[in-house]
Amino acid sequence: xxxxxxxxxxxxxxxxxxxxxxxxxxxxxxxxxxxxxxxxxxxxxxxxxxxxxxxxxxxxxxxxxxxxxxxxxxxxxxxxxxxxxxxxxxxxxxxxxxxxxxxxxxxxxxxxxxxxxxxxxxxxxxxxxxxxxxxxxxxxxxxxxxxxxxxxxxxxxxxxxxxxxxxxxxxxxxxxxxxxxxxxxxxxxxxxxxxxxxxxxxxxxxxxxxxxxxxxxxxxxxxxxxxxxxxxxxxxxxxxxxxxxxxxxxxxxxxxxxxxxxxxxxxxxxxxxxxxxxxxxxxxxxxxxxxxxxxxxxxxxxxxxxxxxxxxxxxxxxxxxxxxxxxxxxxxxxxxxxxxxxxxxxxxxxxxxxxxxxxxxxxxxxxxxxxxxxxxxxxxxxxxxxxxxxxxxxxxxxxxxxxxxxxxxxxxxxxxxxxxxxxxxxxxxxxxxxxxxxxxxxxxxxxxxxxxxxxxxxxxxxxxxxxxxxxxxxxxxxxxxxxxxxxxxxxxxxxxxxxxxxxxxxxxxxxxxxxxxxxxxxxxxxxxxxxxxxxxxxxxxxxxxxxxxxxxxxxxxxxxxxxxxxxxxxx
Length: 571
Known about the structure:
By secondary structure, the protein is of the alpha/beta class. It has 18 helices and 23 strands. Helix 11 crosses helix 16 and helix 14 crosses helix 15.
C-alpha cells in the first residue's frame, strides 16, 4: 500500500507526498481529492448542480433536516460503510444478506516517526463518500432504494475537529500508534491501572483513545485552550463519518466504540468523570453515546443518498461478532485483518479477565447492553503485507499462500511480528519483531509459512485465555477477514486449536454486522432470529495434526516470544 514518511512534523504544515495534490497542504490536497471524487459521483449518478470543490462547506447543513425521501416499502437494500485501517469500503446488501456491489479505495498510511501512525481525516471522509456513491452506482440503485446506512469502523483511532468550521485539528492518530507508551508506563508505575481496568475493562495502553487525545491537546498549539472553550470536538472514525454525513448536525458515537476510548464506564455505559479528570479531557468535546441500532440522523440534502437514515453503528470487531450471528454466551469469532481480533460473547454482564484480555461492550440494542471478552493482535494480516511490500519477498498474497503450502512446516523458524509491540495477552509496547531459528537451509517458502503460523499462534494464545476466563470450552471458531481466505493459515489454525474452524459463506461479516444493525432499526429485518437463519457455513477446517507435535511447536513459539519482549528501551 502507498506510504508516506514526511520529513517534518505533520502538525506544523502537513504536505502530501504523492498522488493528486502532491506537495500541497492538507487543505489544498483535500480540494483536489474532493474535485476528483465529485467528478466520479457526478458521472456515476448522472447528477449536476452539486457544490464545487471551491465552495466552502458549512459544518451545519442549511435548510430543514433531511427526512427519508421515500416510504420504507420502496426500499430494497442496505448500504454499509466499512472504514478500515488500510481502506474505505462500501457494500450494498439485499434483503437476503447477499452482497450486491462493493467499492473500495486504499487509504494512505502516514508514518512521521518510528512507532507513529496517522491518517488524513479529510481523505478518510473523501474516500468513504466516494465509495458509497460508487457502490450504489454499480448496484444501479436510486436513493429511494436505500432503506438505511450502517457504519462500521477502525476503532480507537482518534480525531479532533473544529466545531464551527468542521476542519480537522491535525492528522488522526491511528490505533496502532505507540507514541504514548511512556505516558502509559508512568500511569502504571503510579498504580493507576487496576482502577482504570475496573472502570473500563481495558488496559493502560497506547492502543486506546484517551492517551492519544490527551497527547493532541498537549502537543498541538492552542488545542487545549480551544477544547476547554468548547470549540473542538473529539470522535472516533464513526463519529467523524456521522458528523460529515449529517452535515454537522449529529455528534454521536455508539456504545461499542465508546467502550474503546478508556473514557467510558463499562457498567454505566456513559462517560466517566473520574476518567475524564485523570486524562484531562473536557467533557464538552465528547460525542453523545447512543445505542448501536437506532436512527441517529439522515444524510444531508447535498450528499448521496440524500435523506437516507443512518441507523446502525458499531466498531469493526463488534460488528463482525454481530455479522457472525454470535448472539449467545460462549460463541466466538476471530477476524483476520490488519490485526487479529477474537471476541467471545459473554452475555449481559462483563467478565473480568484474569489473563490480560479486555472486557468490552459488544453492542447496545433495544435498551439492553451485551458484553464480550476480547483479545487483540496488533499485527495479523499486516505481516503478509510486510513480506510483500517492504521485503518484496512475494508479489501477491496468492503467491505467499502457494509458497507456504509447498512446505510441511517452517523448518524450526519462528517469526514474531511485534512491529508495534505485543497486544493481548502480553501487553508489551516495547516488544519488537523477531525471526529466530534461521539456518543456512532456511528458504523463502519457510519464511512465508512462518509468517502465517505467527498469525495462528497469536490467535491460539488469545483463545486459550478466553477459555480460562469464561470457564466455557471453545466449541468452534467462526472466522472472517481477508486472511481467513488463506487455506494454509486456516488449516494450521485448526491444528493448533484442535477445534473446527468455520468460515461463513459470506465473509463480509464486518460490513454485514453494520448492515444488520441498521436494518433492524428501520424494520428491514425483523429480529436476530431472522439473521441467525440466514447465516450459513461456507468452508470448514478440521484438526488433523498430531497433538504432541503441536505441543512442541507451541513451546517453540513461547521461547521466541520471550526473546522479542522488552526489546526497545523506554524513554
